[in-house]
Amino acid sequence: MRWIAVWRRNMLVWRKLLAASVLTNLADPLIMLFGLGYGLGALMPAVEGMSYISFFAAGQLCTATMYTASFESMFSGFSRMHGQKTWDAILYAPLVIDDVVAGEIMWAASKAWLTGSTILGVVLVFGLAASPLVLLALPAAFLVGLAFSSVGLIMTVLARGWDFFSFYMTLIMTPMMMISGVFFPAERLPAALLAVAQALPLYHGVELVRPLIAGRFPDGALVHVLVLLGYAAAGYFLAIRFARKRFSE
Amino acid sequence: MTVLSARGLRKSYGASEVVCGVDLAVAAGECFGLLGPNGAGKTTTLKLCLGLIQPDAGEIELLGEPVPRRAREARVRVGVVPQFDNLDPDFTVAENLVVYGRYFGMAAHEAGARIPALLEFAGLSGRGDAKINTLSGGMKRRLTLARALVNDPQILFLDEPTTGLDPQARHLIWERLRRLTQEGKTLVLTTHFMQEAERLCQRLAIMDHGRIISQGSPRSLIAEHIEPQVVEVHGPGYEAWMERARSLAPRVERAGDTVFVYADDVGPVLKTLSDEKELAYLHRQASLEDVFLKLTGRDLRD
């Protein structure tokens, strides 16, 4: 549990910069939610038996969680690792690189979870959820955060410069968002694209959260949970592996 | 008692071997200096001793623990001052110490209780709430030193502790490091400042091209490697004078437009200089720098 000291360090910095951090993490997704949700929603009939804004809220909750996890693990993580050399300083103490990687992943996942749960709070306040079952979206959001933090940290420990993250964001995250059922049901996609979406974590997050907002227990919940956990575990082990290599040089 | 020992240490990066068979032993309570030009392998040697990188060959023992296998356990009682400050810019001076203490498993009140003494040591009393970017280079260095002491270590590793500091800041660091050795702490430092090595270290290892080429106290190194008297000469006509000097002293060297004459007795050399009104000269005792330049050469290192 040595990673907790790393997690706490990041949490303390976040607490100091709370106002700016909350604004950037929450304002954007909420503006999107209400802008697109009400704007587009007014033009559309119910989608899968939900109002469009409720439908979109599930996608937006997962997307915002994904973005917070990715930004924190990649941009903030790289700044700590590469720019500030905070990781180096930590490694003089009785911690090893595995502890730092675990602390960074858990921190990014925690911060992402906070984004997800705040959006969930907004969903509740605006009456967009059908039943208390929606509270199960809280652990689901943490899983989404964990999966993307782990994958993001792989990018961080492989990166030689800031540009590296643009490739991941533009070539992987943005297309993933388009095919994962965030804006429209993924089942409308051609079979091949749907298969791609199903191999990626965001789709499974949305498939968990959307029924919960609609007041139903998700079908195949176990599969969705296992895929998200699989990405988290694989990301964790790969990030540690690459980090060990980077820091043994 | 030996607190740090390394035998047959080797480390390569790609085709170039950076550390090629280093042996060293540091006794408890001494200040041991690794002296060498840039790129000699000093920093890599320190990192190997701390278990931060894996050696290709060799054995290391730090505070009784085998490194790198149990380096983490050893580092509980170790402090590190890196070559480049990596203080946490998001925290104040005091927060830097508390957060760092946590990496050693210290609760906030434990580290907090040590803060006044650490700040006093660092000459930063009353600056606990200052932001890192408002500190001068010397203050940052002292805070980094205080941070390395937060866990009250037995042994302190310092990588070029005064590089980039002005003389005032440098003297203050030296004074603090001497205070630490008086308190019984073991210091291992790398440097390429002879003055620093001469003033602080009881024992030195001169390192070049990944090897230790000589070891001993500053005085014994001077006695062993170099004639005790030096005359430095420069000015118009120094080349002609240099030829005359060769017959009067065992070793005459030239670096740029300056001639260095080394001898046990420089009387005859000084006599010839009294006739040379054009030449400027300096007669001095041989120093560690002369040893260093003799052993590592006068060529530029980058």
Short summary:
Chain A has 249 residues and is an all-alpha fold. Helix content of chain A is 79%, strand content 0%. In chain A, helix 1 (3-16) crosses helix 5.
Which terms would index this structure?
heterodimer, A: 249 residues, mainly alpha, 10 helices, globular, B: 302 residues, alpha/beta, Rossmann fold, Alpha-Beta Plaits, 2 domains, six-stranded mixed sheet, four-stranded antiparallel sheet, 11 helices, 14 strands, 29% strand
Low-confidence stretches of chain B: none
SSE topology string of chain B? EEEHEEHEHHHEHEHEEHEHEEHEH
- The domain count of chain A comes to 1
Strand fraction of chain A equals under 5%
Order of helices and strands of chain A: HHHHHHHHHH
**Which band does the percent of strand residues of chain B land in?**
25-35%
Shape of chain A: globular
CATH architecture of the largest domain in chain B: 3-Layer(aba) Sandwich
Name the structural class of chain B: alpha/beta
Number of separate strands of chain B: 14
* SS-based class of chain A: mainly alpha
- Write the CATH homologous superfamily of the largest domain in chain B: P-loop containing nucleotide triphosphate hydrolases
- Kindly identify the CATH topology of the largest domain in chain B: Rossmann fold
Number of helices of chain B: 11
Describe the structure.
- The complex is a heterodimer of chains A (249) and B (302).
- By secondary structure, chain A is mainly alpha-helical.
- Chain A has one domain.
- Chain A is 79% helix and 0% strand.
- Chain A is built from ten helices and no strands.
- The longest helix of chain A is centred in the N-terminal third of the chain and has 32 residues, at 52-83.
- Chain B has two domains: 29-46 and 76-223, 3-Layer(aba) Sandwich (Rossmann fold); 227-285, Alpha-Beta Plaits.
- Chain B has helices at residues 42-50, 71-75, 93-103, 108-121, 137-148, 167-182, 194-200, 218-225, 238-245, 267-275, 288-296; strands at residues 2-13, 16-27, 31-35, 57-62, 65-67, 78-81, 155-159, 186-191, 203-208, 211-216, 229-234, 251-255, 258-263, 280-285.
- In chain B, the strands form three sheets. A six-stranded mixed sheet of chain B has the order 6-7-8-3-9-10, sandwiched between helices. Chain B has a four-stranded antiparallel sheet with strand order 2-1-4-5. A four-stranded antiparallel sheet of chain B has the order 12-13-11-14, covered by helices on one side.
- Chain B is globular and about 70 Å long.
- The model of chain B has no long low-confidence stretch (mean pLDDT 93).
- Classes of the chains: A mainly alpha (249), B alpha/beta (302).
- At the A-B interface, helix 1 and helix 4 of A face helix 2, strand 6 and helix 3 of B.
